[in-house]
Protein 1
Amino acid sequence: MHLDTLCIGIAGSFQCLQSSVSVVLWFKDGRARLRILVLTGNKWRISICAREEKAL
């Protein structure tokens, strides 16, 4: 599963929100942080911040 595809699916569910949403997903190797920014109106912007971190 590609990270881009997953992010798009998550963003679709937050179309109604008009605020910044932080989503953290845990993977076997580590965790990735997804930051979603939603703008007011029909236009919404997606900002992705993915970081690979080792599980402590």
Note: Residues 3-54 form one domain.
Protein 2
Amino acid sequence: MDSARSWFKKFQHKNEKVENSPKKKKDLENAKYAHKPPIDGAEAPSTATKQKAAAAKQYIENHYKAQMKNLQDRKERRWMLERKLADADVTAEEQMNMLKFLEEKETEYMRLQRHKMGVDDFEPLTHIGRGA
């Protein structure tokens, strides 16, 4: 289970600190790409291409931020349950069962989140436009 939870840590550097200041981030990005000429004499990217790249970058960043937030929320819910179980008079076996049940529910919820909604997920109530 730990390997599933920590897959994203492969992409993070432990010693690297990320500045939260948007101005500093922009300055770093501009400095990083300012001195690079176009590859093999190709044209510089058009404004539309830059906008699409920025939109894709934003989408990816939002996606991973949401994943990290969901991971943090799951950890917090588990921690709260563990704390409540520690305070309550519950046997170790019952504690393990409760934690296993929480993991099953979390897994089921994540699976439902990934499921794409389709026509088969709905039930028709009335037929419209069939005539008399």
Note: The longest helix spans residues 47-87.
Protein 3
Amino acid sequence: MESSSPESKLYTKCNAIDEQKVGLAHFTSLRVLGVGAYGKVYLVRKNGGNDDRQLYAMKVIRKDKATRDKTTIEHTRSERQVLEDIQKAPFLVSLHYAFQTDSRLYLVLGKWLLFLLFGVIQNMISYFLEEYASGGDLFTNLGKQGQFSQETVKVYIAELVLAIEHLHKMGIIYRDIKLENILLDSEGHILLTDFDLSKRFSSHPEHRAYTVCGTPEYIAPEIIRGGGYGYAVDWWSIGALTCELLTNTSPFPAEEENNSPSDILRRIDEMDPVLPSTLDETTRDFLLKMLNKDPEKRLSEHVKKHAFFYGIDWTDLKNKKQEAPFKPILHDGDDSQNFSEEFTNQPLLDSPAEVLHNANSLFRGYSYVAPQHLCGRLATKRLATFPVAYLNKPISDPPSAPETLFLGRLISSGSSGTCCTTIYNNQTYAVKIIPDTKYRPSEVDALISCAHDDHKSIAQYVATYRNGSDIWIVQEYVPGDEVAERITNREYNFDEVKCRAMFKQLIDAVKHIHEKRFIHGDLKLENIIFTDDETDQIKLVDFGAARQVYSMQSKHLLLLLSNIYYNIPHYIFSYTSNRSMWNDVPRYTIDYAPPEALQHAEYATYSASFDIWCLGAILYSMFMGHTPFRRERAERYVDAATLKQRILHGEIFTCADRWNEASSELRNLIGSCLEKDITKRATMQEILLHPWLKINARQAYFNLSRAFDIDEDFLGYENSKNKRARKRFKDKSRLYKLLLYYTQNSLRHFKIE
């Protein structure tokens, strides 16, 4: 009989200490993916750890339901054990975590952290966190397509055969093959889930199972008849599934209204399979051999040799080198459109569960952490938990967006998300829309600290909301063009006076950010926007790469912990004694990235000097019309590897007449900011005191006159002499327009000394 002591402890090869375990607080529910007899399946997001922001499916199983009888207890415990045993198997989920509370059990399943798997609950009640198979289940996809072609079915069934074959080799019988338990990942390959009815056989050659279980339409006749059964029941279920995929009907169809579970089981036990005449002989032969009522004569371990699988390269299929017949249409990694709306539209509610006094003893040893997370959890403390500190209370789970907040026109789109306008409370705002998997609470932390106090050169922060699986960051709407767009569309680049006016505003904004103990981390022309089309007023946007600058005290504590407790290599926290510096995940725009961001593939070195380099690249770009390590404006298509080598080992491009026209002060400031040696790079204080920023309008005119070979005494003319000078040069249209612009605009930005 299938029984064991309900108080016996589960066997696990990988035990976790308390500091490495996870709990409900590590997951945030996003939406319902499925509903079964005893609970729901939720799409959830992981909070923290080396799989931070990863999406999983949380399958809910309550202890008060799972402990109603010994059989259910055994199934619950067996599933937990089986899932640990099938790590990294083809087309099967693998276990990441397991834990429990007083009222519920939790399992976290995954497929090498690629996608989350969703399974419909049948006879269990536990929280399962599985790989999110964004393609949906075959039941939903079959309903959408009607029926699959024979070539499609052949690939799906072949993948299922490999999955079941692997289980049987491990001594595991599955016992619940059905459409709802077979999911498609984003590439269209199957994933088998829901191991609540699985059982590991003993090593005895006459192993048998006796429990009557499974889904009626797929149950083998020997289960119905009693007397015990073996692995052959899984091959029967594959035969029934194959018929359903090919014909969209059961091989034992209902007789009028007689379709109760008992009627279905009676037909399976007494009737021969009913197969449509449209099926070819090879397919009919395959189905009849799979649906042989005698398990000894049923096609089983030799199934792969049947002609039905002609053309299948089993090695390529196992390695997923064969293209899947159907690739689900996805809009994003957390897309759930391929799951039934019957479930995804349900509210995120969970029913209360009774707390049992002896439930924990029934599931002793249930907790589990996969080996990749045992070291990963410690690494997380090194690279995520400690370095990602917050000056404000982190908004890890933002509130839902107000119903009156509607998106307007698209402003821009990038690798991290999109930006749209919105009208809220009769005012226009900008909304940055980020997929949940890419959201970083540290961005909002920086916005609250740096963009919440009406700084004139920083777009102000308003609020953060959640809308489905997206995060909405609402900010001040800046209606003008990006500086990059203005430069691209201009025949001429910005002159020194215009560059100076804009650069002063920019360094004032960056100085403000640094004073708040943050760095921006992604300063570039695309993140600087004009407030309108008339003036040179600008605002800085996009704090997606912002980081907090740590105090020396906290850094010394990190070094102490890393050396004493975690045994972390020194390079992980390579702080210096005279400036705030730390390593973190690389985030940069290659054209503006400093050398310290490119020296290591795994991490980048950050400090306030990171922003200083970016300021130098921006100033160069505004004056020259292209970024420092591109050869000219026309060199737009340069691969990242080439730019990386130029930044690390080359020099900025100065072989141009435009560079020679620059004042010595401007060239010196750019060079000081773009110093590769971080210890020699200009500081913010040195920039603020730099002579180029002290040049007044009169001196700027003098520099311009030298560039255009104008009489040096021109700038000394007053009133009438000025008019004569202007008349003298009015035939030089470009110069005339420049000087006229200076007279009308530049004196507003600079004090004449």
Note: The longest helix spans residues 150-169.
Protein 4
Amino acid sequence: MSILSIGAIIAIGGILAITTTILTAATGTTAVLLQNNQNRKIDIPQINEISNISYQEQQKLLQQTLNNLRNIVQENQMNIELKNERDKVINKIENLNKVLQNPISNYDKINQEATELVEEINELIIRNQSINYQKQEIINQIKKYQNKIKNVEEIKNVEQIIKNPHNFHTKDIENLLNKIEDAYISYELEIKVTKSEAENKKRELTLQKIRENLLKIKEIDLETYQKVIHKYENLENLDESYLKILYDQSQLDFSNLQTKKIRTDIYKIQLELLKHNIDNILKTVEKDVELKEFYPKTLKIFQNIDDLIKQKFIEKEEFEKLRLKFIEVYNSILKKIEYLQTQKLLQKNIKETLEKIGYQIIDSSLIEKLTKGEIIYIDIPYSDEYKVQLRLTEDNQIYFRLVKFTDSLTPTSYEKQKDLEIAQKWCKDYDKILELLKENGIIIENIKRIEPEETEITYILKEEKKKQQEQQKYMQIE
């Protein structure tokens, strides 16, 4: 027999944790993107603030956040090499906005996509800044030759690249530099030079560029410099072809280290922001009796972030592991808050809602038991044999099931027909209940619904019910 016979599983609320997951993610990202633009910010509401705003307001806040994030990614100057990646990120933001129209049933999908989105944007920023730096280094080399060889053909169109490097591929700018260097050598040696003289001059330039790369590595991190320097011994004795290989290697060593530094700088900006938010969370959960259980885990994350910030370099895996741990703990806190909110809303509304459509709840403690996770049974107005079974889970799912208390588990044809008629009446009442709860500000959505024609009603033996009641009385005495 199915978990639900005649009835449904309903999710209540369910977007509080998504809201802060995306807000936290978006704020960390925009903190990096907007370093030079202080007029635009996305603020994360404090945990006590966001838990007090309605679900409709949370949904609106989410959509505004995603729109801001999309606009910032679009406006940020992205290198031509990353155009496809940028478009994918923007499409992902658009898709998230669409599934937000139905936030409860899409809860897992939204959380998963929000997590992936942050990682993708982080990588996009890191790669973009790394390419920016790489292009700027090449352009700085080109600028050295600008005044010296103004009339050389290769230098004439360089201004366009200098002004808008993001519109040109790195490889094309490198090729231009190589042409300019060749032109410079010929120009400096008054055009008519021997092949040997040109090669020597080019060799000197390659040597100089290798040394410049090594110096830049040393300035960023002495330890890395000491690890790679052995590859560049006895440069003076090497021919031009081997020097070119070593130059490419020095470019790669420097580029890898520079990307590592950019990655670390970006992660540290985000971790500082995360640390500030966790500090506020700690103050909240420490004072709240119902949330105090989360204090040790939250404090541990705060300490781990502090340790990570102190590191010279932060790897992607370290950052992502800690960020996801933060989201996991934060969502646990928010789910607990949401569960407590749901308890209060149900205590306030469900008794009144049921009584409006003719259901009498004589025992006032029933609703309190429901909000504590116990299974309760409510009499229906049109038969003494049938009851509605209700249960509220910690995931804010409420189970409704129509059941029948009987002396036998083998119904007659007449009883089956009566079951169907009662179930059909109950389903109409069920729809009214949902409407009234929505009117009272509780966002609900059917996750699973089984119609009367699809299955038989659930039978519970009266003796079994008596035993349950006796057991409950005994537990209360204890």
Note: The CA atoms of residues 345 and 371 lie 10 Å apart.
